[in-house]
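Handout, page 2. Input:
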Amino acid sequence: ENPDAKAVLVNNPTYYGICSDLKKITEIAHKHGMYVLADEAHGTHFYFGDNMPVSAMEAGADMAAVSMHKTGGSLTQSS
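Output:
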């Protein structure tokens, strides 16, 4: 439907804490030659525990935007 699309943008997790299946999304996107960009502003903590959902980078995403000050317990200036 959008043959000129170059990337998929995923908001993960949503504001309600719902996580996408990033591994599957990344697999499908890469199969079609597309980049995967993840907005992980509310999922910064995923990187700090084995009992957390998979992070975007661990799932194979090409880019993840994180905001440590939103969910990581740091000052606003750190992001």
